[in-house]
Amino acid sequence: MIPLVDLAAQHDQVADEVAQGWTEVLKTTAFIGGKQVAAFEGEFAAYLGVPHCVAVGNGTDAIELGLRALGIGPGDECVLPANTFVATAEAVARAGAKPVLVDCDDDTALLDVDKLAEVVGPRTKAVLPVHLYGQAAPVERITPIAESVGAAVLEDAAQAQGARRHGRCVGSFGDVAATSFYPGKNLGAYGDGGAVVTTRADLALKVRLLREHGSPAKYEHPVLGFNSRLDTLQAVVLSAKLRRLETWNAARREAAARYEELLADLPQVRRPVVLEGNLPVWHLYVVRVPRRAEVLASLHEAGIGAGVHYPVPVHLTGAFASLGHGPGSFPVAERAAGELLSLPLFPEITVGQQERVADALRKAVERTPR
User: Fold this and answer.
1) Where does the sequence pass through the membrane (predicted)?
2) Backbone angles phi, psi at 175, to 5 degrees
3) Concatenated DSSP letters for 201-223?
4) 112-137 pLDDT, tens per residue?
5) What mean pLDDT do residues 314-327 have?
6) Between 59-69 and 201-211, two packed helices, what is the crossing angle to 10 degrees?
7) Residue 272 host element (H or E)
8) Would you place residue 350 in the very low, low, confident or very high pLDDT band (cuts 50, 70, 90)?
9) Per-residue model confidence as pLDDT tens digits over 12-53
């Protein structure tokens, strides 16, 4: 079986360092707010090239706390792509704002900037470009449109730690950015975790306040806050992995380039398109195929752990039926949702494994007519 993601192989590389760090935490019993959390925050901020990082409980909280720090709440609208994990819209709704959806680009599956101007307006308070599958959205085109209506830009960078656009790391473009350290991410913890990063000291201060029950000091609660903190054990894991992230991301790029060669002669398989100016980190390698269900079943029968991200666009989920969008509202996202197929990709994947994946995919699509 070739897994979609191999977390065991990654753990082997950091096991000794993590064990040593955890031993120190266990001795001090500083499980919440230990010095390792502050150390990781500094390391991750420096890696991204931003002055502020606030570690929180998970990626969804990171988006919500970023929005709340921007002052966004009931009566406000936030624009995001229809093709994203539901957490992006979920965080907007949890902050009390209304998600406003926009279709995605047919080539990259990223937010379609050409359609963005059609949906922003006086109630728009934030635009949330999602750096999907490890590739950066064109934030430099999105920001002027957001600024034209007085809206902020919050980057959803959960799938793109280390990705660059025109040489800059994602997370350093907008007013604020949110990321996730869910175990399967390029930089993943051994449980849930997330972070808010920003160039603005005022927003970082607000997020720190909000994550700690709205408390600047013990038993002082000037504002209503949350309990959303990264624990010290996870910070140890993330620091160990961060030191290897560039190497792992480079290995992902090599694997993606290999897939590009292996699949080049398969007209039934639509390979991913990289936006000019991007250096992706390939959190996922997503192709598009006809009759996806049959192809996926065939791959699974062959022992290939392929997956689907995401089979239902946000507007067609029950959670967001109240937005009033039926089938046909966002045709590009809907069409892509029925074709997208994620192939196994992780830093340690071998040439032989990728050849097996390509061979199985070739057999699957050749016996599955268009």
Assistant:
1) none
2) -65, -35
3) HHHHHHHHHHHBTT-SBTTB-SS
4) 999 999 999 999 999 999 999 999 99
5) 97
6) 120
7) none
8) very high
9) 999 999 999 999 999 999 999 999 999 999 999 999 999 999
What is the Cα–Cα distance from 340 to 136, expressed in whole angstroms?
Answer: 18
For the cut 90, the answer to whether the pLDDT of residue 367 exceeds it is: no
Residues 250 and 236 sit within 8 Å (Cβ to Cβ): no
- How far apart are alpha carbons 196 and 154 in whole angstroms? 10
Could you confirm whether domain 7-103+110-242 is CATH 1.10.3210.10? no
What single-letter DSSP state applies at residue 268?
A: T
Question: Which whole number is the average pLDDT over 85-108?
Answer: 98
- pLDDT of residue 292 exceeding 90, the answer is yes
C-alpha 226: how far from chain center:
22
Which residue shows structure tokens 């406003």?
100
H or E stretch including 353? helix 351-366
User: Per-residue pLDDT for 173 more than 60?
Assistant: yes
CB 71 within 8 A of CB 162: no
Please state, in angstroms and rounded to a whole number, the distance separating the CA atoms of residues 338 and 325.
Answer: 18
Q: Are 37 and 56 in contact (CB under 8 A)?
A: no
The residue count for the chain: 370
- 259 pLDDT higher than 60: yes
CA 300/CA 296 separation, integer angstroms: 6
β-pairing verdict for 124-127 and 77-81: parallel
On whether the CB atoms of residues 272 and 287 are closer than 8 A, the answer is yes
How far is 312 from 104, CA to CA, in rounded Å? 14
> Amino acid letter at 123?
R
Closest by CA to 163, choosing from 199, 131, 130, is 131
Give the mean pLDDT of 256-281: 98
**Least reliable range by pLDDT among 101-105, 218-222, 236-240:** 218-222
Buried b / exposed e across 330-361, counting CB within 10 Å, b at 16+? bebbbebbebbbbbbbbbebeeebbebbbebb
Residue 5 in contact with residue 346, Cβ under 8 Å?
yes
Three-class SS state of 151: coil
Residue ranges of domains in the chain: 7-103+110-242, 245-366
Give the homologous superfamily in CATH for domain 245-366. Aspartate Aminotransferase, domain 1 (3.90.1150.10)
